[in-house]
């Protein structure tokens, strides 16, 4: 299995290639952004801080204005309270070290003491307000970001969903919503730390100009170490995200009900487990590498901080001994240095965390942009309500990516409306691809698909989808009730019992529904308590009922009878004929050529090309590919059925 190279990128071994059919690739456009991060230094981070805070505030504002305002006000107030506190401490020390009796000095310090008490009270109240508002804000921010993520992801073209690169972005971007949530409290703490740091720095500068640079020197090492560690973590995350996904996939395959029988009968369990362990171990090695580097970086930083602290206190001592600083001032300086370095530490840590989270939010924002580019276009030419025919003209289509030959080449055919049109051909001849193009799921590379005289390429996609109902080969078995499994065919339509009953009858699925323990309210899905599992054939009927419920102008059925027994198959074709009789166009893909005999028109595809078109009788008479396939199937039934024995 893959071993971590020094650079932290996973290598791919032969067994991974075997499992995933190719090396895991990281050549997606968006990895450029990760490289951009690698060039970031502390200065760039500080420069980006205002925009980070602003984007965090914008997200918060979008989610809950009241809470956003409260957090900002409370944290600013708390920062200011610390500043006032420091000034009051300075006054107290100055009064205590001043000339006069103890009583006079205490009386002098009293107002400042009262101020500190009041400020502490206000600060405590502000903290409570901030805690409440942040707690209320965070889940809302996460929800808003997640909703946007899901909404954009659901609106992209099918080709984007099938694209490895886009999938990687979807994978990394999903962490963005949680990061956006965390950015809220980091931003609040940054605002707070910034203000109290400015207060401490101001006090130190007034006390002695040499103290401020020393404070900075003390805190720089931890800034450097946190930034270095975060940068390594982020680069590693990007390089390893695909590996983690593959590991997760293997893990989930092991517990997936669909895979369970084969895992047990073919003994796939130990095989998958071995790969899971091996992949996890590689990922663990990467984690260990990061931890080792983090420990080393932390040690260097600690040594540097220690030396800087010694230098700071030595300077303070020198100033005291040399008479350049009064004892009361030195006392304030010590407190200001402690407060200042604590604020600077917090600031560095929080800015760093903010920055790290912002990178993930950045991935999410890149997804938003990429998804918008690859979104199904809105608007377009209106499609005829009741077109006479759909014409496929010289259509060529190659799947993006690694396809070596076009799935469809120069295909020209017609789909007259209100008829049953069958697509026939051997496996891989391009039938499913053709119906996906008809449904607008892919666009042709060359050629056009005309709905009467409107080119589907420029047509309103929602209108196109509106007119199509589809039972795909691998149609979705939704883990919902039987009722929802049908009504989901047209979620926008009001759900009525009458429409459901008609669809069930049109699909001949009455028996399936009657056998369900709780009728239409039965939950279909083994993984849930009370869930009921249907057989493949029963599911197929429900799939057809769903398409019937949709009432699209064009019904596309891809292998509708693959899982049906002989009697059910006849019945389903009867039903499909009835749907066409009622005016619906049916585009039927099937290998059962006996059933194709009832089609009005048959198109035969071979290796992506249209080789024959005509009525079933015409094609049989011509003696071409269709006739040959038909003959092959007919021969299988030619053997005589032995007569039952007498007596
Ligand atoms: N999503 C995809 N990405 C890349 N290539 C694909 C994809 N789907 C199908 N292909 C390829 O396109 C060609 C045509 O496939 P298609 O599914 O259209 O054939 P088909 O005639 O429907 O086959 P079958 O009878 O087995 O269902 C095949 O070579 C197949 O490997």
UniProtKB/TrEMBL annotation:
Pfam families listed in its UniProt record: ABC_tran
Gene3D superfamilies (alphabetical): ABC transporter type 1, transmembrane domain (1.20.1560.10), P-loop containing nucleotide triphosphate hydrolases (3.40.50.300)
Keywords: ATP-binding, Membrane, Nucleotide-binding, Transmembrane, Transmembrane helix
Organism placement in taxonomy: Bacteria, Bacillati, Actinomycetota, Actinomycetes, Kitasatosporales
Domain of life: Bacteria
Localisation: Cell membrane
Domain ABC transmembrane type-1: 87-356
Membrane topology according to the record: Multi-pass membrane protein
Native species: Streptomyces phaeolivaceus
Protein name: ABC transporter ATP-binding protein
Transmembrane segments: 79-98, 110-130, 186-204
Primary subcellular site in the record, as a coarse category: membrane
GO MF assignments: ABC-type oligopeptide transporter activity; ATP binding; ATP hydrolysis activity
Annotated GO CC locations: plasma membrane
PROSITE patterns according to UniProt: ABC_TM1F, ABC_TRANSPORTER_1, ABC_TRANSPORTER_2
Record domain ABC transporter: where: 390-632
